[in-house]
Structure formats: C-alpha cells, structure tokens
C-alpha cells in the first residue's frame, strides 16, 4: 500500500514537470507571436527613425535605410531580427544614442527598474500582509482603524504625493536618504522610491488580507480547528496564513508586474534612469529597436509572472494540484 | 433499557438554568431561556427542536464557542472529567476562561459539525489535520502519532488508510469527510462528544451509516453523546434520552420511549404528528404545526407555544407552566399536566400512529 502511495506521489511530481514544460513551451510560442505583431505594427508606424530627416536628401535617406537594413522586405527584416536576437543582438539605437547597441543601452535600466519595482512589491506585500493580519485579528481595535486609514490613503493618494512627501521630509529635512537616485549608491538611493512605490501594493494587500482573514476566521473549518482546542497562534500559522495566501497571490502578482514595468512619475521625481522614460522617448522618436526591445521585455516579465503564479498556486493550494494518477 | 437507573449512572455534564441572549441591531434576542440538561457516561442525549429553538447555542456553551455579541445571563454547566494525572475534576464550563477551555476542547470534549464539506481545511492533508490535536494535547509525535492516526481512521471505518491519510479533503467524498471529522473529534478520547446535526448535510443512505458509526463508537468507547437534530427519525435511532426544545426552553424530556410512545407536551404531539412515516399511508396530508415560532426579541408571557397550541388553556397565555413529572425520568412543561386542568388527551390520529409504531420493530422513518 505504501508503495502505491509513493508511486502516486511520483506520478504527481512528474505531472507537475510535464505541466511546467508545457506552460513554458506555450510561453515561448506566445512571445514569438507578440514579437511578430510588435514588429509588424512598428513597421506601420508613420515617421522616420532618423533625426532631422527633412534636412536629408533622398539619397542620404536611402543610404541610411540601406545601412540599417530598413530597405529590405518586412518579413525578411523580422526573421533577421529574431535570428540576431537569439544570438544576443537586439540591434542598435537609431537616434536616442545613435548606433549604441540596445543591450548596452537597455540592460542597466532593466536592472534598475526591475530591482526597484520588485523591491517595492516585496516590501509592500510583506508590510501589507502583516498589517492585514494584525487588523483582522484585532478587529474593531485601534490597530484595525490605523490599518484601514493606511489602506485608504495608500489606495487613494497618487504615488507622487508619497514620493514628494518622502523627498521633502525624509530626504531633505531629515537627510537620512538621498533625494535623487544615483548609480554609484543604488541601494541607499533606491530606498525612498521603493517606499513611495510600495504604498499602493501595501494598501491593496492589506485590505485584501484583512477581508480574507475575516472570512476565514468565520469559516467552518476554523470552527473545527478551534474545537480541537489549539491555541490561537497555532490556529493562525496552521490554518489562516496558507488559506489567505492563496487569494492574496491572485491580487498581488499582477500588481508586481505593473510595478516592475517602471513608473514614469517615480523616474522623473527621483531621476531614476529606468525603462519607463526611455520607453516614452523611444516611442516618440521612432527608435524601433528600443521600442521593440522594451515591449518584448515587458511581455517576458508578464508571461513569466503569470507562469510563476500558476506554479505557486499549485504549491500553495492542493486543490489545484494536477490530478496525476488520482482516483 | 435500564439507563434511567440513576444509581449506576455516571454524570458527566450537568447544565442548570443556562440563559443566553444576543445583542443585535434590533434589540436583545433571548435565545436560551433557562435550560437544564444532564448527560451521563455512555449515553446519548438528543436535543430536538426547530431552527432557532436555541439547541445549537446551548451546546456551543459546552464547547466554549461564543460569538462576540453573545451575553451569558446566567446558569452553570458542570463538567466532570478525569484529567491527565487520573484525578477527577469538576469545572463550570460557563465560567471557564478561554485558556482553560482550550485544554478541555478537543481533549475531553469534542464536537462533530454539520457540514463535512466545509469543516476540513482544504490546504492540509487528512493526517496533519488529524494529528494536530493529538500532538497538542497528548504530545504524540513521529511513529506513535502516525499509528494513532491509522488507528483512528480504522475506528471510523475508512479503508485504504495510508492513502487516505495523505489525501486532501477535496479528494474524499462527503460521507468519508464526515468520518474524518468524527475521527478528529475522537482523536483524544473525549468523555463527551457533541454532534451538531452531523447527518443533515449528507444524503440519506450515508446518514444511516454515519449514525450507525456513532452508535458503534459509543459502544466501544463509552463516550457520552449530545445529539442535536431537528430530525425525529434520527433521534429515534440514536437517543437514550430526548429533550424537546422550543423557543429557548426544554419543554419535555424523557427516555426515547417516553417521548415517542407517551408524549405529553402539545408541541411534542405536533412534532410527532408532523413526522412522515411509511406506516402513515392512510393519511392524505402530513400534519403541520400552524404558525411560526415566537420572535425572541419580544418578552414571552406564559407558555411560548400557546399561540400555536390548539389545546392551549387560558392560563397558558398568562403564566409559564412549571415542569410536571410524569414519572421519575419523564417530565413536561405544560399546564395540561396540572391536576386542575381539564382532561385533554393527545389527538386521535397521533394515538393511532403511536399504536402502529409500538407494533413495529423500528420507529419507522424514511
């Protein structure tokens, strides 16, 4: 009998591997399609990627187009792009920093933006979760009221208000952290933008966690767990946390994705060299390769996050576990 | 049945004049208005009543399950048990602190809930849910713990135990889950088991099996059982003693035979008459008790059942009836039993039916 169980578990884990592989394959196909559509749409955009095109003669323009390979048919250009991309070459910038390889141009910005966004998400999620737990367990207390006020402020005030407030009080008056981001001191100078950005996820996660825990505390299975005579702490760690995580995950991950795609406002206020501002500039100036690369990165982040959520779900919620050899 | 030979019986629970109300937005609801209840080792006591009669609230006091707007107006619930050191102890469950209550809950007093489909934590394996209480109360770990879990699932009639222990609740059927809930309740060998409508959410064939299981476990472990239900068929199957509850009070109490064959309270008459039976083919319509239970927000004057009682006397509307003893194990709170009351017998239809029931082996239901 024990052997049968072992077999069943092995069956389940291999089903899991199969599931992940399948999802990855679908992700690759999706990304390819996204890239194709982006490429086609960009080739339809009006305007030209070259600065001061009106001052150039038709011959010069033709020479530039030939130089960058823009004179070739669009499909050919697409496959060439994919081929180069697979070899780590994302092309060069046409006008923002002329002839600068995209990888060198976008690379450091990705690290900054993802880093700040991810940190803000994690800080917001952890703080929001803890506040939510506190508010739910001490319902109708001062803690609960305080948490509610924080949540309302966090959701309703735009992040630049927090950013300006933090810059002024913590950065300028107290002088604890630098007001502007600097690549030479990325950790300390990222503290203020991370806190400002984390207010929204903090507030959302807090509200969600609280309402989720309140309904779990009211559930039949909590009544049974209480009737086992377990002390409060065990009830929370064994029964409440995991069940809450399942639903919090659903709201949190999409939020994390949007945080990681960079906030233009934050980048301007803290002068962060991030993806957001580069993206806007690139779109305005028809710097195709930059737009393409950043759009593609966003898609990758989004699809990977969704994949991650699905896998986390399976880990956290046994009901979603793939029925491998289940009876 | 010599269960009512009180000299040999060991009392486990003695509830006296328990009164509970709830503060609601509409006012104070007097849900339980002075309940007395005795439970003896190895016996099953049923509490029967309609929804809202206060039966659940009454037993939840025993488990220390209280809602935040609940007010205990008075009464006591003495629980007599043998502690870990083998000493006999008496505690009042009503005045016990939450901390002291956690030591009794799941350990000496356990409860089986109504809906097995939602009673188990969906994110935990059966073994972990079963083991939790045992680890906490009896400090069993490792192999001994696992063996105890296996033993418990065996006790509640689950086969393929090793696989089931590793299952999650959603992988089991409703009947199976209720067996697991019962196993959890029994995990620390409680003296008192409370079953709050444990079969209501199950289909009829499974109901019967779960009832038999509870009876069988009682025979094996001599646990005392309080059985809450609104289903008289279930009561007939399981109960040694029956308490009929109406509007927050017990209106009639006695052995199963007393209640089913010699009912005295008009409300009990009504309940029995409205019970569908395979023997009652001749009856065209099923009897129903007219009207609705009283609004517990209002103060009740006289007998709470009087407005619905076709046999009500004038005094029923003025003064609450005391308990009249029918014999030493059967009493009812109705003025009809007063010596001065006119001679009113139970309705003819019911008399015929009881005669039929007495003739048949089973108290026919379903």
| Major sheet of chain B | 8 strands, mixed
Q: Report the CATH C-level class of the largest domain in chain B.
A: Alpha Beta
Rg over C-alpha atoms of chain B, rounded to the nearest angstrom: 21 Å
Distance between the termini of chain B: 25 Å
Q: Which CATH architecture of one domain in chain A would you pick?
A: Orthogonal Bundle
General shape of chain A: flat
Could you give a short account of the major beta sheet of chain A?
none
User: What value does the average pLDDT of chain A take?
Assistant: 83
User: Low-confidence runs of chain B (pLDDT<50, min 5 residues)?
Assistant: none
The level of helicity of chain B is 25-40%
Give the N-to-C terminal Cα separation of chain A. Answer: 15 Å
Q: What's the total helix number of chain A?
A: 12
Q: Remind me, CATH topology of one domain in chain A?
A: MetI-like fold
Quantity of strands of chain A, as a count? 0
Shape of chain B: globular
Cα-based radius of gyration of chain A, to the nearest Å: 25 Å
What class, by secondary structure content of chain A? Answer: mainly alpha
What structural class should be given to the helix and strand makeup of chain B?
Answer: alpha/beta
Mean pLDDT of chain B: 87
